[in-house]
């Protein structure tokens, strides 16, 4: 619990059998977490055995994809503060205190893995991934005239329940670029958000996406396409809204007379 409000944590798992128990225990050790939900997204055999001895509740999501797992987690959790984190050893559970500190003023608090001082030795954040994430984040920042963004792919974040309830009916992505969709929806819906640096450590095991540069590049291009699609759609809706307001403006029947 944080400042009298309940805290839930969502841990999506696919290939984190060797790290998930340690991650759960780390969140338990913070003393702030009321509920941990593990979303088993067709995970590696033995994952459930690792979760069973902990306080976490495991649910199964048959639809494949990071987004599908997170969306299922959002349906399951009950807390006011909802933390999302990948249980692969790359994030430090104690960084939730940083997220809570900013949650006083913002409804969506995003982590960033691109700040040099917070990137640990062995972390999978080489120049290609670091500057790729930074560039796409800056593209989003510029197109939507939003807050300073430095990482479009960080999967550690906190959202307050009222903000989640605004976004939830609009989620469409089940794949690995679900995180950027949350950011875009926050831009479109004017949800107060901020991005802050979090610790980024060496992963336990190999990522199915960022461990391969070609897969990471393909994912980045899909993110860019989604950002541009949102921009075109929102600009179109705003133009239609302006035209509708103009057409509904009453026309004065008073005619000026010549003097």
Give descriptors for this structure.
14% strand; 259 residues; globular; Spore Coat Polysaccharide Biosynthesis Protein SpsA, Chain A; alpha/beta; seven-stranded mixed beta sheet; disordered C terminus
Gist?
Helices cover 41% and strands 14% of the residues. It has helices at residues 20-30, 47-51, 66-76, 96-103, 127-144, 161-167, 178-188, 213-247, and strands at residues 7-13, 35-40, 57-60, 81-84, 108-112, 157-160, 193-197. It has a 7-stranded mixed sheet, sandwiched between helices.
Distance between the termini: 74 Å
CATH fold-level label: Spore Coat Polysaccharide Biosynthesis Protein SpsA, Chain A
In the CATH hierarchy, what is the class? Alpha Beta
Low-confidence stretches: 251-259
Proportion of residues in extended strands = 5-15%
Overall pLDDT confidence: 89
In CATH, the homologous superfamily goes by the name Spore Coat Polysaccharide Biosynthesis Protein SpsA, Chain A
CATH-level-2 architecture: Alpha-Beta Complex
Share of residues in helices:
40-55%
Shape: globular
| Total separate domains | 1
The quaternary organization reads as: single chain
Number of helices: 8
Order of the strands making up the biggest sheet: 3-2-1-4-6-5-7
Q: What's the β-strand tally?
A: 7
Structural class by sheet pairing and helices:
alpha/beta
